[in-house]
Every structure is written in C-alpha cells, then in structure tokens.
Model the fold of this input.
Amino acid sequence: MFFLQLIIFLVSLLVLIKSADFFVAGSSSIAKHFNVSQMVIGLTLVSMGTSLPELVINIISSFSKHNEIVLGNIIGSNITNILLILGISGLVNPIVVKKNTTYKEIPFSFFAAFILFIFLNDKFINGSNFSNSLSKSEGIVLLIFFVCFLYYVIKIAKVEPVVEENIKVFSFEKSLVFIVLGMVFLFISAKFLVSSAIFIARFLRISEAFISLTVVAIGTSLPELVTSAVASYKKNSDIAIGNIIGSNIFNNLFILGISSVINNVEYKTFFNFDLSVLLYSTFLLFGLMFLGKKHSLGKKGSFFMLISYIVYLYLITLRK
Done:
C-alpha cells in the first residue's frame, strides 16, 4: 500500500506540472485575445483556478466541522505561497513587480490577513465574554471585502496597458480548452497528491496537526507553485506574482468567508503564531520591493524567503 501511494504521489506531481503548463498557456493566450493585462489575468482567473483545491477541501471540512483543517489549510497555504512559491519562482527568474502591485495589491493582501487576525481573536480584542471564532457575520464581511477587490481588478483592467511579452497565441477555442483541461487536471491531480501525501506522512508517523499546516497546505498550494514557477520560467512575471497575491486574497476573503458562512469556525490561539508569520511574510515581500532593483524580487530576496520558510517549518515542528 505504501508503494502504491508513493506511485500515485509521483504520477500526480507529473500531471500537476503538465496541467499547470496548459493553464498558463491558455490564460496568457486569452489575455492577448481580450487585450487584457497579464496582471489582471493572474489576479483573477489563474489565482482562483489554482485555489480550487483549498476551496473544495475547506467546504468539505466546514460541513464536517474540522476547524483545524479549515484554518491550517488556508493559513499554511498562504505562508507557503509567499515564502516557498515566490522564493522558488524568484530563483528561476527575477520577478519584476508593477507599481500597482507594490503599492496596492500587496498591501491589500496584508490587510486581508490582518482583518482575519482581528476577526479570529474575539476574546483578545473584545474581552473574555467572547469566544475565539470566525462567525457567519464576519464571513459575510470577508466576502464583501472580496467583492471590493474584484471591483478594483475590473477597474484596473480598463486602464492598465497591456504588456507586450513573448506569448504564444492560440485560437480562442483552443485557449479555452487549455484553461478548462488545465484547471480540471490541476484540481484532480492536487487532490490525489494531497491524499497520498497524507497517507505517506501517517505511515511515517508524522502528527496530523503538523500535516494540516505542512503537507495539506503545501499539497493544496502545489498548483500555485507549479503555475508560478512555469510562468516565471517563461518570464511572465505578472502571472507569477499576480497568481500568488490573488490566491492569498482569494483564500483569506472568499474561501474563509464561505467556510464560516457554512459553519462558525472555532479558533485555537496557537494559530496566532502562524497568522503572525503570514503577516511577516506579506510585509517581507513588500519590503523586498525596495531592496536591490526597485519593484523586483531578485535571487537574494528569494533565497531569504526560502530560508524564512525553512525556519518556520522547523519552529512548528518543535511546537507540534
């Protein structure tokens, strides 16, 4: 059984890589057809498509009231997105970041994480009569913020100039086929990969609490990892960075919003450390935009992000 799961893990990883390639190719081609900037495509279609595993896992976990999976999956995935995925993508090729992303989208991502921290710590913020949870009303507020973000994306789509990049343009129908097939196989392969990874981790006697913040989080972030790495390799910087920022905003506001509307999400305060790391990660990304080449994530900054992620994994291993 162990070797069967190992084979499933490896095959799923190969399918994931290829489907991400199709997804990026189709998304880039669609951007050309509609004369829409790569950043807008990255912030919407790509980021939401690659967040499908997190969405499905959280919906299932919310109905069954597995609150640690609901929170560990999203918080862990968002930390992984910034420190691990952007770290790897920036090592593949330096990621050039637009001013809008530096001054608006990254700060909005920080705001989404901060408002989540406030909502989850009701007892600390409002007093001992409150319980730490993400309520249905707070979930609705998160969804309203997400609608505001979509409105912003629609506005920049109208005014932001299209960046000429080396993108292969397919027919509109073929582009759609690439996107749909890429999204479907990203979702299916990620699901198989996560389930096999959990089996392997349990077989090796790794704690389930640790799994929720690492194996599940990394597994559900693999579509973002492969999509951003492939986009970075192809020098599609807007998709590489837009995918991650859009995915984190989508995770915090939409997925957790939907999760808490389904059922109140009870919160254990040990997650405050992980939320603090998420805030640190987002602030670090913002700070790196002003070191070295301005508005660019270079190899030194990317390496530092990877070191930060390794330190984080070490610390939660000690905690768990």
